[in-house]
Design a protein that fits this description.
Helices cover about 85% and strands about 0% of the residues. It is mostly helical. The radius of gyration is 23 Å and the shape is globular.
Length: about 250
């Protein structure tokens, strides 16, 4: 218990030092105070946004977009990755296109997506789904293709059909890869959601709130949004780590 408290204390040392350094720069001049907003102003803005409901409204909108894009991208990614891993024809037909398309940076698709679908909610969700799709498809494919030979031989002994072989042999052994892909996809989904809100500033969202605050020279609000995005991202990463540890531990035990 004592060692854990010491570890927590050391972990808080860097943020505290950064806060003191930030406050030091904010007091150097008026120009510095604009770029490095005093901590007291940031704290005051946080309570202002929390009190009037703006922070909760925009945070929920961003979370909703991230979860929707994450769900769609995960389902499509697992489906396509599994198809390429199981069906040789699908690998031949889809594989080259997939590996070529995933080399294009996501930002490279923004002009076309905006031209084809406009700058509304659909475009934002599409960007998030694409960000999730790539790692999910790749890790599912790698997980299925790297199943060890003895497990495949067990399926042959029991004369499993293609579906039984997938459910009872390939998918269970691919779960570690899939969870690794999901961990990456979750981070990509969160970043892509905020990025799409900054690019397509339509509707509520933390990214849209940051743009409005920037145009109004409210850098304190911008900092509140940035800190909120970072905290939620860390909580997501912590949560998926716990779920991964529990699920894979339970799966291995069974």
């Amino acid at each position: 218990m004592r060692s854990r408290l010491i570890s927590w204390a050391w972990g808080l040392l860097t943020p505290v030092l950064l806060a003191f350094l930030w406050e030091f720069f904010s007091r150097r001049s008026i120009a510095h105070a604009y770029a490095f907003v005093p901590v007291a102003d940031i704290w005051r803005s946080f309570w202002e946004l929390a009190g009037n409901g703006d922070l909760a409204l925009n945070l929920w909108a961003t979370l909703r977009s991230a979860l929707l894009g994450l769900s769609i991208g995960t389902l499509l990614g697992i489906s396509v990755g599994a198809s390429m891993g199981i069906i040789k024809t699908a690998d031949v037909l889809i594989g080259p296109i997939y590996h070529m398309v995933r080399q294009v940076p996501l930002l490279g698709w923004i002009p076309l997506i905006g031209l084809w679908f406009g700058t509304g909610v659909f475009s934002k969700n599409l960007i998030v789904a694409m960000a999730v799709f790539y790692p999910m498809a790749l890790h599912t494919y790698e997980g299925i293709r790297n199943v060890e030979k003895p497990y495949l031989e067990v399926g042959e002994i029991f004369r499993f059909g293609r579906w039984q072989r997938f459910v009872h042999v390939l998918l269970p052994n691919a779960w570690p890869y899939i969870f690794t892909g999901f961990s990456n996809a979750l981070a990509f989904a969160w970043v892509a959601t905020v990025g799409s809100e900054l690019l397509f500033a339509t509707g509520p969202g933390l990214g849209a709130l940051m743009l409005i605050a920037q145009s109004a020279s409210r850098m304190d609000v911008v900092i509140v949004c940035i800190v909120t995005i970072g905290i939620i991202g860390c909580l997501m990463n912590f949560g998926i780590g716990k779920i991964r540890k529990w699920f894979l531990g339970w799966h291995c035990a069974h």
